[in-house]
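Schema walk-through. Below, the input block comes first and the output block second. Nothing else is stored per chain. Lengths vary across the set, and this one has 502 residues.
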Amino acid sequence: MVFYKQTIEEVARNLKTDLKNGLGFNDFLKRHSKDNLNIILRKSPTRWVAILFSQIFSPVMFILLIAIILSLINKETNDAIFIGFVVCINVLIGFLQEFKAEQAAEKLKSFQVLKCMVRRDGKILEINSVDLVIGDIVLLAAGNKVPADLRLTKVLDLKIQEAILTGEAEAASKVIESIGETSSIGDKINMAFMGTLVVSGKAEGIVVAIGSDTEIGKIARFILVPKKSLTLLQEQLKSFSWFLAFMMIFLVGVVFLLGVFRHIPIHDLIGLSIALAVKAIPEGLLIAVTVILTIGMQRMLRKNVLIKKLVAAETLGSVSVICTDKTGTLTQGVMSVKSFITRDYNGILRLNLPKLAKELLTLSILNNDSFYNEESKKYLGNSTEIALMEAAIKIGVDVLDCQKKFPRVGEIPFSSLLKYMVTLNEVGEYRKLIIKGAPEIVLNMCNIQENERKYFYDAVSNGAKLGLRIVAFASKDGKNIDLNMKLENLERINRDIPPTSG
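--- output ---
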């Protein structure tokens, strides 16, 4: 069913759930099954036996094994032992590298049990997310991970970070109204999807999909059944192995026929042909390739690149350019402060910042709606505001003390129409009016010299060329400053210190 197109009442009726009290206990028992838990399928770790045998099944390895057999038939024990030693070393190196990589990958997986709040039989309960069923009423709050795919029924200033599904760094605002036909996850703004993070607000929603039927579960299923293909190196080794085999057969055949024409005894010809076939096999090739790939694997590991398959080291190592449509989201999903622009400073974040740059950081944490969540042990909120908060912490600013010392007494929230946010903070007997917003908007509110205005505009232009997000700050102090919630009262801000940008 396309639940995003249905009204809340239609969803509740189709899923046979009570919006006020949630599912009854008997209904829950009927819908709950060990075979249908709210768990995303995960690929089981590769067993050590499978890793060991994967080292043996390759065309070059088969040729070496044939060489061992032919050497033993020809009673060339030393050659058989040497080739066998090469095979064992190659298998051992490849096995150890891939086994260690497999163990490292397993350690990276999180097995933390996710808790969630649900309404059942009119009571609010905390349960393990694996026990959710279709039709459950889930309660969400800032800092929660969405435990299943939900059709939202109530929202209060709800914003959800959906970068893992959409690639968008900005949190998505949610509504409860039904929407029209769409194929994009980002457009389904009345839905909350499993694995995404609530950054602000509160909400309730009906579970409409669990486990592998969720959007993130569908991605997991696709990953678990990857398209198998050989790497370029494997293709080349395979082609070389067949070429070597055919050439070996051809040359041995030619030598055998010449021996027959020259009336050489058949017994001697067989021994000669076997010896020639064994000598034609480059037994050192495979171990040389394995050692080279192992070195490459170790070098990339020092760069925090974990490779599970040894042969993949060549493919990944040959990558010179990675093209993405996002700056930072794909790799980290976070923003960070790169530089500051003030009258006396234009540079990167560092501990010994000059006075105005430090004041800029103070402004950025006072005019900031992000907050520290004890459950997740990190700041939540708008990604830009989180970056500003973390920048202040990096240079030693006591954020909580600063916010207590200069409490907020008024504000004008940010909106796409205004393109700025205003806060009014108490500073002892004075008040501080702080504006944060788009550089062109904030600069127009400031009474500064034309040469200073040009200086800031040039700096903003240079930052934009580098693809940076630029936020401007300005402030005004005074005893009688009052915050009137009207746009016309914020046309000009006069201050000795010019606006600062970050």
